[in-house]
Amino acid sequence: MSALRSLILAAADSPRMQRFVQKYGFKLGAARFVAGETLDSAVPVLRRLNEQGLLTNTTLLGEGVRDEAETRAVVAAYRELLDRVQAEGLRTNVALKLTHLGLSIDEELAQRNVAELVGHAASVGNFVRIDMEESRHVDSTLRIYRRLRESGHANVGAVLQSYLFRTETDLAELLPLAPNLRLVKGAYLEPPEIAYPHKRDVDAAYVRLLEASLSGEGFTAIATHDETLIEHAISFARDRGISTERFQFQMLYGVRSRLQLDLVRRGFAVLVATPYGPEWYRYLMRRLAERPANVLFLLRNLVRG
Ligand SMILES: Cc1cc2nc3c(=O)[nH]c(=O)nc-3n(C[C@H](O)[C@H](O)[C@H](O)COP(=O)(O)OP(=O)(O)OC[C@H]3O[C@@H](n4cnc5c(N)ncnc54)[C@H](O)[C@@H]3O)c2cc1C
User: Fold this and answer.
1) Alpha-carbon dihedral of residues 172, 190, 291, 264, nearest 10 degrees?
2) Which residue's C-alpha comes closest to atom 50 of ligand 1?
């Protein structure tokens, strides 16, 4: 892992850094990655992406909530979001974090909150993706996903991270559920005892996961901006006769927009993850860590004023 990536992810925890970035960051650069600070400002962005042939998901940014009442407010906000998506006729589903719904307080609380939202999403014909967070949450997140599926919810998906050693086993255990899985490389700072420190190993693991998931019965969301992996997925699916309805590509709002549209033109489904909300700080820091050149982009905006 690059030293700069570790440095940015570690600095993300500093309150002083947070105050500084929160004060100036939206104008300086967060707007590139975040659709707005309110749902009202996100809706036109989502609509414009849909008009370009892109599917979207959205997230009310936030994580690590430690107060039960606050998790209820998050549930209410997501219910409103799902209703708004239906009313506006958007092709947008929801991606959320279980620590936003109380996973750091109590697993049962997060389970109840997410079950309510998955149920509400079903009632408006929508779908909920449960993001994957730091490694300490992987067991509980996968348990919650499994319980949702076993209690009959079909409109819910999970995420697996190729940087973790454990993930190939996790995938093998999930495949009998015909899961809807998003595959990512992984965005957090993880120790070398549990995660591949070198990019080439993370990429090689991604290929193995991709092939195993596409060969299973479920749906695979290939969430990467890595063109080599994207082209590998396309040829693997073509050679095995895997229908394009069994997978889609997913990328982040503000990253590789031209590639997103090229894939649409080639006939593939592409979903753009387009979050919003005032709590964009940690999300922005992860985007900077993925590509330290983004720090320069931010600094250039600072100099230009
Ligand atoms: C839709 C979606 C959902 C995600 N959900 C999760 C999740 O639930 N849990 C989780 O841990 N991680 C998640 N991630 C993040 C993921 O783990 C990676 O950190 C991120 O996607 C960067 O890795 P990459 O696969 O694009 O490959 P990389 O090898 O990192 O990047 C490939 C190329 O893409 C471009 N690129 C990548 N990132 C950026 C960026 N930030 N800014 C500008 N260019 C960039 C660069 O050109 C780079 O050379 C998600 C990513 C996507 C796209």
Assistant:
1) 20
2) 184
Instruction: State how far the alpha carbon of 24 is from the alpha carbons of 17, 42, 150, 231, 302, in Å.
Output: 11, 20, 45, 38, 9
Calpha distance 210→221 (Å, rounded): 9
Strand locations in the chain, DSSP E? 55-58, 92-96, 128-130, 156-161, 180-184, 219-223, 247-252, 270-273
Among 234, 229, 256, CA closest to 54: 256
- Does residue 255 line the site of ligand 1, with CB under 6 A? yes
Tokens in use for 160? 């697996």
Whether 300 shows a pLDDT value over 90: the answer reads no
Helices (H), 133-198: 138-150, 167-174
Q: 112 versus 278: which is more confidently predicted?
A: 112
Q: Rounded to an integer, what distance in angstroms lies between the CA atom of residue 190 and that of residue 194?
A: 7
Q: Measured from the CB, is residue 250 less than 6 Å from ligand 1? A: yes
What are the phi and psi torsion angles at 126 (to 5°)? Answer: -120, 180
Q: What is the average pLDDT across 110-134?
A: 98
84 in ligand 1 pocket by Cβ < 6 Å?
no
Tell how far the Cα of 176 is from the centroid of ligand 1, in angstroms: 27
Q: Taken in order 184, 291, 264, 96, is the CA torsion positive or negative?
A: positive
Rounded to an integer, what distance in angstroms lies between the CA atom of residue 135 and that of residue 141?
10
The atom number, within ligand 1, closest to the CA of 97 reads 8
Query: Does pLDDT of 27 surpass 70?
Result: no
CA dist 255 → 112, 209, 223, 294 (Å): 34, 23, 12, 10
Q: Picking from 36-40, 112-116, 277-281, which range would have the lowest pLDDT averaged per residue?
A: 277-281
* Residue numbers annotated as active site: 131, 182
Report CA(224)–ligand 1 centroid distance (Å): 5
> Does the Cβ of 95 fall within 6 Å of ligand 1?
no
Distance 162 CA to ligand 1 centre (A): 12
